Amino acid sequence: MLSEQLLKIISCPKDGSELTLKHSTLKTKKNSYPIIKGIPVLINENKILFNIDDFQNQAETTFNKKRLSLKKTAKNLLPSISKNFVAKKNYKFLKNILFKNNDSPKVLVIGGGIEGSGFEHLLDERIFIVETDVSFGPKTKVIADAHCLPFKDKTFDGVIVQAVLEHVLDPKICVDEITRVIKDNGYVYAETPFMQQVHMAPYDFTRFTYLGHRRLFSHFSVVKSGSAIGPGSALAWSYLYFLMSFSNNKIIKYTLAT
Questions:
Q1: Residues 184, 122: Cα–Cα separation, whole Å
Q2: Considering only CA atoms, which of 162, 161, 165, 245 is closest in space to residue 197?
Q3: Mean per-residue pLDDT, 211-224
Q4: In whole angstroms, what is the distance from residue 216 CA to residue 140 CA?
Q5: Alpha-carbon distances, residue 28 vs 13, 21, 32, 104, 172 (angstroms)
Q6: How do 182-191 and 156-162 pair as beta strands?
């Protein structure tokens, strides 16, 4: 069952029209979208890399669940080379400013199938959070693509794109969509990499300098900015991938990485 609150804000990803819930399907006059394991699949197949059949067949899309499990185990055993020291403070800051404008803010999380670093500090029962992703993850509430967000205009008080925009085909279109679905006084929290090796291949496309990132969000004013991870992590990533480059064997590469 989809919550009434979610049903009120979703729309057709193709034309923005109203969706009607019938059995386990969301429909317009021209289009229909399945609900799989309680998660609506609201994608425009003409604009993204995946199609509805991928999700109906439970195909792996952007991440491999077995690989994620291995990474989680390794993460628990080894020190992190990409510790995000500012996300905790940033999420607390975001939480405070959201409540200044609204007693029950709505927040969209793009690429939120897996909880991002520090995200737990935003959680509050008064905040209605909608986590979207193009993969079924432990947090996914809606299968949606950032190039054609299936939500009504000016819906959200906040939008989170943490370590996501490097993985989209056209970041500008995605930011335009964020601009459409966010309220005029809304806030965006975005983290994007500058010096980091290719990850989550083959879905890794772009890197950003500070000025490049600022231009991407040129329609927004800056509330707060800065680095999430410093030069030490960039150096560690370079050294890690240097070691991994000595072999193409997946097992050997994984061993070298750990």
A1: 21
A2: 245
A3: 95
A4: 26
A5: 11, 9, 6, 29, 28
A6: parallel
Residue pair 84/229 in contact by the 8 Å Cβ criterion: yes
Per-residue pLDDT tens digits for 148-206: 999 999 999 999 999 999 999 999 999 999 999 999 999 999 999 998 888 888 899 99
Q: Helices (DSSP H) in the chain: which residue ranges?
A: 4-9, 52-56, 65-77, 87-101, 171-181, 210-216, 231-244, 250-257
Residue-by-residue DSSP string for 150-217: -B-TT-EEEEEEES-GGGSS-HHHHHHHHHHHEEEEEEEEEE--SS----STTS------HHHHHHHT
pLDDT of residue 79: 60
Q: In the numeric block, which tokens belong to residue 161?
A: 């794109």
**pTM of the full predicted structure?**
0.90
Q: Which residue shows structure tokens 């737990």?
A: 120
Phi, psi of 162 (to 5 degrees): -100, 110
Q: Position of tokens 């229909």? A: 32
- Indicate the pairing of strand 39-40 with strand 32-36: antiparallel
What φ, ψ does residue 211 adopt, rounded to 5°? -65, -35
